[in-house]
Design brief:
The chain has about 190 residues and is an alpha/beta fold. About 35% of the residues lie in helices and about 10% in strands. It has a single domain, classed as Phosphoglycerate mutase-like (Rossmann fold), CATH 3.40.50.
């Protein structure tokens, strides 16, 4: 068993340092090219199951990566990016409230309209528990988002020694691989 996780290709909001969250922002031309480059990287991999976030940027990336394959792309709402509410569309580099609290492991409740990280992690870990049970002997491709990559890294690797789960974030169209040894440690 192997799980590969791809973060979607670049969007205009990525290059403008804007928080996307659940906003459905499309891939830009660079993001489309990144997806084709990732497709080439994954040519030698076989996937039994492909699951994507429902947001357009992830679905578009999944469609490109799976061109010329017989895989059906399953959509799962639980892979949707975290809802950043009032922070969506703003610069994450300039907003101190976002920078201080949005990825806190201690964020017990919603920060105004923001999905609290512990609740988001619970959603992603529940999804991972389900697919590990349902598809234990399969090779799985997940196509999702930066926030999802953080939660997946947290799930399989635990909290980093520095306590900053945000360190698990993937770049656009980067691939994280979780092999059978890592997966067995979770079961």
């Amino acid at each position: 068993m192997r799980i590969l996780l791809i973060r979607h290709g670049q969007t205009d909001w990525n290059i403008n340092d804007k928080v996307q969250g659940s906003s459905d922002i499309p891939l830009n031309e660079t993001g489309i090219q990144q997806a084709y480059e990732t497709k080439k990287i994954l040519d030698n991999y076989e996937f039994d199951v492909v699951i994507s976030s429902p947001l357009g940027r992830a679905v578009h990336t999944a469609n490109i990566v799976c061109e010329d394959r017989d895989n059906e792309i399953l959509i799962d709402e639980r892979l949707k990016e975290r809802d950043f509410g009032k922070f969506e569309g703003i610069s994450y580099r300039k907003n101190m409230e976002y920078r201080k609290g949005a990825w806190s492991l201690k964020m017990e409740e919603q920060l105004d309209t923001v999905e609290a990280y512990p609740l988001f992690y619970e959603r992603i870990s529940g999804f991972l528990d389900d697919i590990l049970n349902k598809y234990y002997d399969k090779n799985i491709l997940l196509v999702a988002h930066g926030g999802v990559s953080i939660a997946v890294g947290h799930y399989f690797k635990g909290v980093p020694q520095n306590g900053v789960v945000h360190d698990y974030i993937l770049d656009n169209c980067a691939v994280a691989e979780y092999d059978e040894e890592i997966i067995k440690a979770k079961i």
